[in-house]
Amino acid sequence: MVMTTNTNTTTDANTTTSASTTTITATAAAGAVGAVGAGGTAVPGAARLDLAKSAPKVFRALIGFDAAARQGLDPALVELIQIRASHLNHCAYCLHMHTNDARKAGESEDRLHMVAVWREARHFFTPKERAALALTEAVTLVADAGVPDDVYAEAAAHFDDQELGHVLALIFAINTWNRVALSTAKVAGTDERR
């Protein structure tokens, strides 16, 4: 749902770090489909809210949260988390975007095809990636069974506290972006990033 570009940021007089700047643009009216009219009836092709224009402070806050969550995480892991959450949320727009981003970053087709069935294809993923995928599932589906202690403990065994905080924040962020895309009827394949 978001675009990330790397920039350098000075954190103090002696340190420069790489940070992510995240950008997303609005959907053109022609790209929005399936709005709901009065009484809950579908209005095919009707434009939906453009969150970036309607609530710019909220939108910028989401972008900032997403960028902060990514800091210090392996970019391949970031995409795996975003892809798995997008599978679970049935967000075609974000799934299309993040699988393309992963390909551009050098991710293999084999691994991309196996993300949805990672438990049955464990050998495609490292133990750290599997722990992150399990945590992604638990947090994304939190209403079903909460976040089980064993899932959390496994993630905590592979990530230090700061990394784990960023992994959790990234999971929160992609779940939010999925909900933005689904509720505003973003169309898969119409990635509007510049």
Distance between the termini: 13 Å
Oligomer: single chain
Q: What radius of gyration results from the CA coordinates?
A: 17 Å
Query: Which strand-content bin applies to the residues?
Result: 5-15%
Shape: globular
Query: Main beta sheet, described?
Result: 2 strands, antiparallel
Description:
With 194 residues, the chain is mostly helical. Mean pLDDT is 82; it is low at 1-38. The radius of gyration is 17 Å and the shape is globular. It has nine helices and four strands; from the N terminus they run ββββααααααααα. Helix 3 (75-88) crosses helix 9 (161-183) and helix 6 crosses helix 9. The strands form two sheets. The protein has a two-stranded antiparallel sheet. A two-stranded antiparallel sheet has the order 3-4. 53% of the residues lie in helices and 10% in strands.
Question: Briefly, what is this?
Answer:
This protein is mostly helical.
What characteristics describe this protein?
single chain, 194 residues, mainly alpha, two-stranded antiparallel ribbon, two-stranded antiparallel sheet, 4 strands, disordered N terminus
